[in-house]
Structures are given as structure tokens and as C-alpha cells.
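CORE FACILITY INTAKE
Project code: CF-77B
Contact: R.S. (postdoc)
Sample description: multi-component assembly, two entities in total
Requested service: structural model of the whole complex
Turnaround: standard
Below are the sequence entries exactly as provided by the requester. Do not edit them.
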Amino acid sequence: MVEISIESLTKHYGTLVALDNVSLKVASGEVFGLLGPNGAGKSTLLKTLVGILRPTSGTIRIGQIDIVGSPEKAKRMIGYLPENPSLYTGLTTQEFLQFVGKIRGVADDVLDQEISESLKSFMLDEKRNSLVGTLSKGMKQKVALIATSLHTPQVLVLDEPLTALDPKTRVSVKDWIGGQTKRGVTTILSTHDLDVAQTHAGRIAIIDHGKIVAVGDIESLRKMANTESDARLEDVFLRLTEEKGEEPA
Amino acid sequence: MSLAGPLGTIGVLMRYWVKGRFTKATIIGLCVGEAFAVIFTLFGSSTYLSFSNRVGLTAGLSEVAGSLILALYLVGLIQSGFNGGGLPVSSSDVDYVFTSPVPPREVFAAKVLLNSLTTVLFGFPPIIVLYLRFSAYYHTPMTAAILAGLVTLVFLVIGLLLSADITLSLGRGIGERKKLWRNLFIILVLVLSLLPITLLIPGIPVEIAEVTRVLPNGLAAIVSVGLVSGTPGGVDYLIDLLLLFAWLGGFLILGVRMARGHFYELLEVSAPGTEKFDQPNQESRLDPRGKSIWSIVRLKEKILISRTREARALFINAMFLSGFLIIYALSGSFQSSPTSFLFILFIIGSFGSGTASRWIEKERLWILKSSPVSMRRYVKEVYRARVAPLLLYLVPVTVAVGVPLILSQLSTPALLLGVVLALPGALEIAGITMAGGMYFASRYGQSSADDILSSQAQELADIRRFLFQTVINLIMVSPIILLVLVSEALAKIIGSGALPMLAVGLVLVSVAFTGLSINLLLNKAGSAITRREDL
């Protein structure tokens, strides 16, 4: 069980401030939702969290490990799914998963069993020898999800895992997220799907213009947004991001 | 439609494509590319002419060389045609043009016209420079150079039409036999184009070379080189020109006829990550049991090379190169001197950066950068995997060209040193330019769905990459070139007795230099990936 601690995180791209003094704590085993309009800084935050981008300042700890100081150790604990995962289209599904498993340090005897079970649970068993480039978008997303969890990570970072998926695939991805939660995996989930955030996430952070504008469970977010007690997350989100948007630049 | 007939529609389509294609960045890129092409043409033609002057090459041999170069262009377009790339289309064409009520024939006409116009426009400066250099050498009038350039440009358009026709023909009876037809076609063009070089081998009948006159590349080369070299041709040139225009007209009529029906499904959309594979299912070849991470990385790379068109492209190029160099070397035309060795160094060495340009990893870097693997080591392993097939193809070529050279120069030890240095030198240059290409791909590599760099900024980054890559690669390989150039003088100073020791020593020095250079470039490539922010 691992907790995530982000302190005073800032990320600049030249003069653009993508993340501005972001601080968050995600408890071990918690599912944490990240909401925000397009370009708010969600993907930058997640990429920095998994060590793809280097922070301009601030610290990120996965358990006790600093992602900048000991990236290799931290990355062994993380499973990351990007918004638009691009896979090696010239490899078969099995080869792709074997490759990813190997570079993430999965033992040979465990890897084959893990791949077989995951392919079965996602009903991709008969696509084992199909080239990834010939799979449908939904199938590729499932393959990417399997790749994310092959090394049984203690932390999952999922960037828009349900974008542009058909209803059937959405259900299987939601089930998969639920399964990971039951296993006690600490999960950060960025999504535009407010229902998913409301259903799966214990707490939600709303990010806008690179700043966290609100954090809490749905009840406390409603209070922060001064909405009614039964207000939908969508109304809460709109109110909080509108208020931020009205501030002078 | 409210447009003024087919011509109006074609005009609208062309304007739309021109606006979409020529941003500020692409115009800068094209100007830079043109400048480089002109410089390269001047350098290449001057080297070739001084070489031919020294060894007494005839204009007829230049026609052969020209025909072969044009044949390479033709082979590339034939390949592209069979792969569905005869009429290049983007996904926005599919979304907006193909769903519009514009008749397919008008789309075909607009595509062919635009491709021909851009090819003529951007091919004109280097081609004219090439023929002006030739006409200055042969003391022929400038008009001859311009006419020769125009003939070559007509050939380029013929190539584009042929490629488009092949793509359009894919749905008309060739179907399953596509691969066989493609290979037969390419082999036929290569064999016919290589025939004239047999003239260099004593005892081969002259008539064989005449066969190439039926092909557009042979016709274009004979007329163009003939005009600038002042070779009297008269009626023969007229017949050749008529034949060339017959090819042009034939391909055009064929294309227009085939474009009557719906052909959009035959075209390959150029978009990243949309490779076509011959077989959707493959036997798994990446068994990780008992293998290290790095051997799996190399194996992955080898599988990717073998399943894409990369290996095929490299093989065809190497086959063509080896055929050309072997016959050329057998003919005895390669005289041992630093100038002719430069030819070997550049021709063989240039394969390195070409191989590196096919390494496109950017979209998949999330897999690697979110894993605990070292990027420096990863790049080195990818290099190892990719340099192996490159050397597999280039070593036989180098040996084939080297053996006759060494045998012919056994009596002149001073020149032999140059040969001994140039042969591994060519492979070393290929190795260094490949590492250089990978470094620049790592630093500025192509991106697609990019929320940080705009597409125009990415294009500018690609231009920077091209410029820096060319300059840095030239600097990196200059010690090897220099060593070859000074070899003759060095051998004379040292004396023949110490030559074997000197040769071994210099080869070891150049191998060590190559190793260090490659290591440096790959370390920088790994660091560049680690630092990349546009993922």
C-alpha cells in the first residue's frame, strides 16, 4: 500500500505555466479523481507524476520514494495509461505484452501466466497472435490497460481511460478499475466522465489553469461551489471552473 | 455543384491543397532543402566530372550513370504505387474531399497536376544546376542545359503518372497477385537499367545496352546527357523524345481511363501509426524466457524491422548499390585515388542516416519513459539491433567493390593504403551517420498529436533537425575522410617498408574514433529522450 504526496509542484514550458504550485496527497488504496477543462494541466500533472516530465520545482513522492531522485525505483511501483496510448503496431498482442512486462521487470514465470489471465479476462485471448496494428481502438485500449498492470503496480495513473470507447468496452474498463481498487491499488484517474469520477473516486480534485481549485469528496465540493446538497458533480464542476475563469489573468 | 465545370473543381482542389501544404515553416524548409540540393548537386557533379576527366570516362558512360539514377527514382515510385501511395492522400482528403460530390476523375486530375507541378517546381533548381555544370564542362550552350533539364523533368512527371496508374490498377485484376507483379516489375526495370553497365566488361555485345532505350529512364538520360555533352544525335534524339512523350501520353491516358470509377479505397492514407501488414496474424517470436531485458529490446526491434517495409527497402537499395558498384569495380573504371575513394565513402556511408530516419519511436516513448529502463542504454540497444542488418547488406557491397580495387593496386602500395582505409571507412561513416541520425531523431523527432508544439513549430523543429544533422554528421565523419585523403602523402613520407604497420595502426585509430563517436552520439540521444518534454 503506497500513498502519493505532491508538494508545491510547478511545471513550466518556456513561459507557459502548466502547473502552478500544486500540492496534493492521495492516501494508499484511495481512488482519486482529477477533473478539469481541456488544457487545465491534468495530463501534465500525470506525466510529471509518473516521471515522463521533470518538474520545474516541487517534489513528488510515491510512498517514500522521490520520483526525481530515484525514478527507477518509483517507476517499478507505477502503472501508467496515457490519454492516447500508441502501441508497437508491428508486434503481436502477446509480443507487445511480453516486451512491456520484460522492461517493467516482471519475472519470466509470472509473465506468461499474467498475460494469459489478462487476455482471457478482457476476452482478447483469440487476438493473442494478431498484430496490434490490426486491432480495433477498443481492443488496443484493453491491451494498453493490460500492459499498465502487468507488473502488479501499487499505484495506477490513468489519463482519460474511457475516452472514445464503445459502451461495451467502457463497462469492461470500469470493471477493471473496480478490480484494481479492490486490490488496494492507489489510483489517480483523470477523466471528463463525471459519472465515472463520482462513482469510482472517493475524493476529487478540480484543476484549472494549472492550479488546484478544489479538493474533496462530492459533499465538500458541493459546499465549496455553494450548490444545493443534491447538485450533480457536473454543476459543481461548472461552478468551480467558471469562478476561476472569471478571475483576472 | 456551383463550380465552373471540371476545371473549376480542379482549381479549387489545388488551391485548397496548396494552402494546406505550404505553411511558413514548410516554405522555409523547402528553401533550405533546395539550397542543400543545389550545393550537393554542385559538389556531386564536380566530383564526378573531375573523376571522369581523370580516368577518361565517356559521355556514354555518363548516360549509363544517369539512366541508373533515374531508374532508382522509378523503382521507388513503382514500390510506392504498389503500396497504394501512387496518389498521396491525407486523412483530411478522406474526410472532406472523398465525401464530396466531386467526381473521382477530377480528384485524380487535381492530384496528378499538383504533384507534377510541385515536383517540377522543386526539382528544377538542382536539375538545372546539374546540367549547367555539365554544359560548362563540355562547352555546350546554356540552352542545351535548360533543354536537358526540361527532358529530365518530363521524366519525373512520367514516374509520378506511372506510380498513380499502378495504384489505380490494383483493383483491376491484379488483386492477390499484387506482390508478384510488383516484384517482377521492379526486377525488370532494375535489370534493364543495369544492362548498359555491362559495356564496361570487355567482350559484351554493344546491342545489349540499347535495350535500356525503351525505358523512360534510359530515354531521358540519353537525351539529357547527350544534349549537354554535345553528342551528335539529330533524328535519334527526336525519336527518343517522341518515345518519351509517348510514355507520358500513354500513362496519362491510362490514368484518366482508370480514374473513371471509384478508386478511393485503393489509396493509402498517409498518417502516423497506420502501417499496413501483409498478414494480420503472426507467430510470436518474442519469447522472453531466459533472456535479458536488452536482448528482448533488440529482438523487438528486429521483429519490427522484419514486419514492416523497412527491411525490404534496405535490401532493394543494397542490391541495386551492390550491382552497380560490383560491375563498376569489375570494369576497372575505379582508379585508386583519394577522389574515387570519396565516392565509395559517400555512397556507402549515406546508408547510415537513411536507416536512422526509419526509426520512429516518439509515439511509443510513454512505454519506455514510464518504465525503469535507462534511455541511454535503450538507444544503444536499438542501435545495435538496427546497425546489424545495415552492416549485413553493406559489408558484401564493400567487399565486392574492395577486392578488385585491392587486387588492382597491389603494385602501388602508396595508393593501396587509401583503399585499405576507405573500405572500413565507408562502413564507419555509415555507422556514425546512423548514430547521428538517431541522436537528431531523439532530439527533434517527428511528432503527431502534440499539445505543446504547434504543427508549424514541429515543422520548424524538423528543419532545424535536418540542418544540424547534416552539419554535425559531416563534422563527425571528417577525420575519417581526411585520413583517406592524406593517405597517399602519408604513405610516401613513411615509405613502403612501414606501410603494413601504418595501415594497421590507422585502421585501428579510425575504428577507435568511430566507436567513441558512436558512443558519444548515442549517449546524447538517450539524454535527449530523457529530457524531451513534448510527449
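Facility notes:
- Residues 93 and 99 of chain B are 9 Å apart (CA to CA).
- DSSP finds 19 helices and no strands in chain B.
Invoice: internal transfer
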